[in-house]
Amino acid sequence: MKDVCFFALSTGARMSEIFTLTWHNVDLVNRVATVTNENAKSGKARALLLNHDAVELIRKLKFRNKCE
Questions:
Q1: Among residues 21, 48, 50, 53, which one has the fewest Cβ atoms lying within 10 Å of its Cβ?
Q2: Contact between residue 13 and residue 32 where contact means Cβ atoms under 8 Å apart
């Protein structure tokens, strides 16, 4: 839960948007994650800009996921 809160504070994303993100919607090269229109509260897709801390968290989670 700590990681979710940290990601929310780093990106401004809502909890529901975070829980529905998939690896397909995350672009670490361009440092952006896309919330699809199906998952956005407004019904419109939006980009989440990923700062350095958010990118590092995603890399850590992706690495942990591969190890399990």
A1: 53
A2: no
Question: Which pLDDT score, from 0 to 100, does residue 66 have?
Answer: 66
pLDDT, residue 67, reads 67
Q: Which of 27, 31, 9 is nearest to 18 (CA)?
A: 9
Kindly give the parts of the chain with pLDDT less than 50.
none
| CB contact set of 2 (below 8 Å; sequence gap of 6+) | none
- Domain total for the chain? 1
Q: From CA 68, how far away is CA 52, in angstroms rounded? A: 25
20 CB-near residues (< 8 Å, 6+ apart): 35, 36, 38, 39
CA torsion 12→16→18→20, rounded to 10°?
-150
Q: Which domain holds residue 41?
A: 2-67
